[in-house]
Amino acid sequence: MIRFEHAGLRYGIGPEILSDISFTLDPGSFHFLTGPSGAGKTSLLSLMYLGRKPTRGLVSMFGQNINGMTRSQLAPLRQRIGVVFQDFRLLQHLSAFDNVALPLRIQGRPEKEVRNNVQELLEWVGLGDQLRALPSTMSGGQQQRVAIARAVITRPRLLLADEPTGNLDDEIGYRLLNLFDQLNRMGTTIVIATHNQRLMERFGHPRLVLDKGNLQVQPQVNWLRRKIEGIF
User: Fold this and answer.
1) 1 near 27, Cβ under 8 Å?
2) DSSP state letters, 118-155
3) Are the C-beta atoms of 138 and 62 separated by less than 8 Å?
4) Do 190 and 2 meet the contact criterion of CB atoms below 8 Å apart?
5) What pLDDT does 222 receive?
């Protein structure tokens, strides 16, 4: 699904934000991306969702080397990717319903299918009473849930989320992580950037750990076993 080989990224003539990044993510995997603020998590996600190309090294997505691709060649790959941005990027003139419906309408789905799928998903994330609300009238947590619903409505092959539970209480955060888990069980590859240690320990997925632009892959964590070991 994703392959990085000695990839680096810098902005302009500044120092490298990411240095010598090498890892592979298999189809259907689920990883947390974590590390201190400023470690390069958002920059790494931007390479994964094809918002940028590496300044050195190789990045392959869906088995294709993206380095030499044009915008038009990248477009079909981007359609397989769902992204939850940290700043939401909702269209302010569209309602919650229409923001979530937009990817389906771009794909030309029948309007009946759009209505049923969007309403069901918004109800699932606790926004069934906010279908016609504009983003400007919603709280940060509500806007975040709209952004998440928009990212998952098409059941993308790859879902990338930048701090998707940052403005949510733990109960809603666990509920949304369960939604991501369900998508993962249906075959979606998932990468979630987060600082929330409780969520990472509770769900126990492998971690991509960034520190000063360098990456380490940590295996799956059995949080129950860790708690038992901590007691004894």
Assistant:
1) yes
2) HHHHHHHTT-TT-TT--GGGS-HHHHHHHHHHHHHTT-
3) no
4) no
5) 58
DSSP 196: -
The ranges assigned to domains in the chain are 90-151
214: left (phi over 0), alpha (psi -120 to 50) or beta: beta
- Per-residue burial over 75-107, b if 16 or more Cβ lie within 10 Å, else e, is eebeeebbbbbbebebeeeebbbbbbbbbbeee
Six-digit token pair at 180? 């991501």
pLDDT for position 221: 60
Q: How confident is the model at residue 125 (pLDDT cuts 50, 70, 90)?
A: confident
Ramachandran region of residue 217, left (φ > 0), alpha (ψ -120 to 50) or beta? beta
Does 59 have pLDDT greater than 50? yes
Question: What is the sign of the dihedral through the CA atoms of 68, 70, 75 and 76?
Answer: negative
Q: Determine how β-strand 64-65 pairs with β-strand 81-84.
A: unpaired
Q: Could you tell me the end-to-end alpha-carbon distance of the chain, in angstroms, rounded to an integer?
A: 40
Helix (H, G, I), strand (E, B) or coil at 176: helix
Q: What is the pLDDT of residues 162-208, one digit of tens each?
A: 988 877 777 878 888 888 888 899 899 999 999 888 888 888 899 99
Cβ neighbours for 159, distance < 8 A, ≥ 6 positions apart: 81, 82, 83, 84, 151, 152, 180, 183, 188, 189, 190, 191
pLDDT digits (tens, 9 = 90+) for 19-39: 999 999 999 999 999 999 888
Contact 31, 205 (CB under 8 A): yes
